[in-house]
Amino acid sequence: MSNDDLLGSTKNPYPVTVTAGVDGNNRPYFLYANPQGQAMRSPLVIPAAQPAYDSIRFTQTGDKSVLRLWAAVTHTLNGSSPVPQGDNLLLAPGNTVAITVNGGTWRGTVLVFEQLDASGVVVNLVPTPDPSTQNNG
């Protein structure tokens, strides 16, 4: 079984890279880019295709010594429960996670990073601003 199978992903339109860092004031910052390094903004739009694409993958790139991608918390933006449970809390083994988005839906996603001290011990969990995905199916 592949990592894609474990993460519930069968067809990704493209991975979205995530660069996480800490600015000079020790505040986390997060940058989203496509594989070519071009900046992307929310919503991340999955293009229409036949058959429809079903997911988008977030992968952390760059230095992981201060902030390390741990999980994604997702919420389908249709009035369903925003509480992380079941498939709404997706761990990110290998600093990558695929978010399933059914055709024609929007999904909110908060990436959660572990903040590490100098010795590599987790001292905090840090969420990103909420990128949403729109699947044009």
**Low-confidence segments:** 1-9
Q: How many DSSP H or I helices? A: 1
Helix content: under 10%
Q: Count all strands and give the number.
A: 10
* Largest sheet properties: 6 strands, mixed
Supply Rg: 15 Å
The overall pLDDT average reads 79
CATH architecture: Sandwich
CATH class: Mainly Beta
The figure for the number of domains is: 1
**What is the N-to-C order of secondary-structure elements (H for helix, E for strand)?**
HEEEEEEEEEE
Please describe the topology of this protein.
Blueprint: H1 3-6, E1 15-22, E2 28-33, E3 44-46, E4 55-61, E5 67-76, E6 89-91, E7 96-100, E8 106-116, E9 122-127, E10 132-135
Parallel strand pairs: 1-4, 3-10
Antiparallel strand pairs: 1-2, 4-7, 5-6, 5-8, 8-9, 8-10
Textual characterization of the structure:
This protein has a single domain, classed as Immunoglobulin-like (Sandwich). 3% of the residues lie in helices and 46% in strands. The chain has one helix and ten strands; from the N terminus they run H-E-E-E-E-E-E-E-E-E-E. The strands form two sheets. Strands 3, 5, 6, 8, 9 and 10 form a six-stranded mixed sheet that branches. A four-stranded mixed sheet has the order 2-1-4-7, with no helix packed on it. It is mainly beta and 137 residues long. It has one helix spanning 3-6; strands at 15-22, 28-33, 44-46, 55-61, 67-76, 89-91, 96-100, 106-116, 122-127, 132-135. Strand 1 and strand 2 (28-33) form a beta hairpin. Mean pLDDT is 79; it is low at 1-9.
